[in-house]
Amino acid sequence: MSESLSDKLKSLGVQVGAQNLPKPDPQEEDYPIEQVLDGMELNTPSGSVFQVKNTYPLDYIHGDVALSSAINPEFIGTWARAAALKDSALDKILFLDTETTGLAGGTGTFAFLIGLGFRSSGGFTVCQLFLRDPALEKALLEALNSIVSQFDQVVTFNGKSFDIPLLNTRHVLNSFQTPFPIMEHIDLLPLARRLWRNRLSSRALKDLEAEILHVPRTQEEVPSWMIPEIYFDYLRTRDARPMAGVFYHNAMDILSLAALFNFCSELLYRPLELQDVPGLDLAAVARLYEEMEQFEFAVSVYEESLKKGDLPLQFYIDTIQRFADMYRRHQRWEDAVSLWKRAAEYQWIDAFVELAKFYEHQAKDYPSAIAWTEAAMQSVENLAIPAWRKKALLGDLSHRQARLKKRISIKGGNENGS
């Protein structure tokens, strides 16, 4: 049976809650964190916290993205339902990522390294707060709160499910008021899934670095699954040298988070002006516009995604379907019919059915409705699908065909749009 987090902490002499543990004796540390990383002490009422702070210049480019570039967060704010973000100064946005003792959650899990990123006068600053001993957690949270209080929005990657709830819990356990509930929160993981689920097999931040931002990581990188164990080893040995890779990992996450925010902001704000945006990405942006009720924007982006010529056939048809359905909801029938006819060229059964419905219920052109119904029946006959499925489809279409023929016979066969 694997050793639980609680057992590991107990074997190291760590008490849950970490209120009553003695501070480590610096003389017993062969390689203290101060010798491994260039940082400084932050003094709080509850003790000191080790901080590493680096500012990247205004012209710094992370992969393909300039971190300090002027961006417009209007549409990403609309998507995230962060009303104030659209009008907020960009230097009021805080990027946050934590390294923790595990992913299980619960009161035994805590953050030992908190990475924070923000725009500053000199460029983009990454500030990392390190818990050199669990007994100093209250000091860590005090240092965190002093920084967080300067910002209006917090941006994370999976932070709504993990980072922020964890930090809220740690505040409660240390009898602190957490600052995060009053902040607007933009979690980029759901957005990444919406934008790239059809193009990328993984939407993990590290994979988005490679595929979207084009950021390589150096040999300093430490795999995420190793990080808790590295921290436990540090607590046991007080050898901070392996922690350098953890700090590198965390700093890269913050830089990539900020770069991804900039990239997504621009992709949503001006998708048609960016270079080399794949058709699948444009189709995903168009769906987001549609859901945000930005109809005219959605139309333009849907059209461009179809013009790209790089959509796989199934996604091409699916995009036409969504595009046409949007036109149908807005009763732009001519545009919807045009799209359904394009899809019908690929023997898409739903397109035949939609055309049959249009000619029956909107145009009142029953002969045309019958023609599209029979075209659907012929297409179904040619499909390589299970017999029960084919029977069900043909049954529905035959019922529609019979109903339409009955209408024509009742009206004397003179129902051509009257």
Task: Looking at this protein, list some descriptive labels.
418 residues; alpha+beta; Serine Threonine Protein Phosphatase 5, Tetratricopeptide repeat; seven-stranded mixed sheet; 50% helix; 13% strand
Care to describe what's here?
The protein has 418 residues and is an alpha+beta fold. It folds into two domains: 5-269, Nucleotidyltransferase, domain 5 (2-Layer Sandwich), CATH 3.30.420; 279-410, Serine Threonine Protein Phosphatase 5, Tetratricopeptide repeat, CATH 1.25.40. It has 16 helices and nine strands. It has helices at 5-11, 33-36, 74-79, 137-148, 159-173, 188-196, 205-213, 227-237, 243-269, 279-291, 295-307, 313-329, 333-344, 349-362, 366-381, 387-410; strands spanning 40-44, 47-57, 61-62, 65-66, 93-100, 111-120, 123-130, 153-156, 184-187. The protein has a seven-stranded mixed β-sheet. A hairpin with a 2-residue loop joins strand 3 (61-62) and strand 4 (65-66). The longest helix is centred in the middle third of the chain and has 27 residues, at 243-269. The protein is elongated, with a radius of gyration of 29 Å. It starts with a helix and ends in an 8-residue tail after the last helix. 38% of the residues are buried.
Short description:
With 418 residues, the chain is of the alpha+beta class.
Q: Biggest sheet, strands in spatial order?
A: 1-2-7-6-5-8-9
| Oligomer kind | single chain
What is the terminal-to-terminal distance?
A: 77 Å
Order of SSEs: HHEEEEHEEEHEHEHHHHHHHHHHH
| Structural domain count | 2
User: Based on DSSP secondary structure assignment, what is the total number of beta strands?
Assistant: 9
CATH topology of the largest domain: Nucleotidyltransferase, domain 5
What does the largest sheet look like? 7 strands, mixed
CATH class of the largest domain: Alpha Beta
CATH superfamily placement of the largest domain: Ribonuclease H-like superfamily/Ribonuclease H
